[in-house]
Amino acid sequence: MTEAEWQTSSNPSLLLQYVAKSATERKLRLVVLECRARVRDLMVYRPYRSAVVVAERYVEGAANATELSRASRAALSAATQIKLLGPVGMFRRRLAWSAVRAAVADASSLGWKVGEAVDAATNAKHVLRPLPVGRVLRCVFGNPFRPVTFSPPWLNPTAVAIATVIYEDRAFDRLPILADALQDAGCEDEAILGHCRGDGVHVRGCWVVDGVLGKG
User: Is pLDDT of 2 > 80?
Assistant: First the structure.
């Protein structure tokens, strides 16, 4: 893949394939959860919703592997009992299950299950509002061809406080404020400032917010 292809490709599977091997488990799980959010309207079963809550806690270190495994088993049990008639019902069921299964995947199987979640979010366009998954991936991973180093002087208490609120509250409308704070601290990096001030898709795991907070 070339840098131009990374910046413009509308094929999320190709983008994911390029970054998957070097991506951290946390980043991959955040992509999965964003894809899951896309199909949340299809998750009408309590074990599915409960499993996602555990998966979200796991990403933040508030749940352990045992809890994640338990949630996975409960979701699987529910999946085997769900009966939806007709091709549309089966399609919706498959999308929901793919997203949930990836959300509660253990580390050993996460690599290929995240692809299922990306496919589910992409294919959900047939029954739900489409999600620009490629833009989600670019928000989370930035530009792998031009890695950015966050200089310590930029990471002052003001910038960190703003980034913390953005991350915890998903307050992405405050990214331009973060850009101002970083610039006041001496940051003139066009990629950082442009991402914060641009009108693109922003999600939890945003490479700029993570960079300020020191999250991998």
Answer: yes
Structure tokens at 75: 């979701």
Instruction: Provide the number of structural domains found in the chain.
Output: 2
CA distance 15 to 48: 27
Q: Is the predicted pLDDT of residue 84 greater than 60, yes or no?
A: no
d(CA 186, CA 81): 57
Residue 188 domain boundaries = 152-213
pTM over 0.70: yes
In a domain, 172, yes or no: yes
CB atoms within 10 A of CB 144: 16
Mean pLDDT of 204-213: 97
Q: Are residues 163 and 129 in the same domain?
A: no
Spatial distance between the Cα atoms of 154 and 97, rounded to a whole number of angstroms:
42
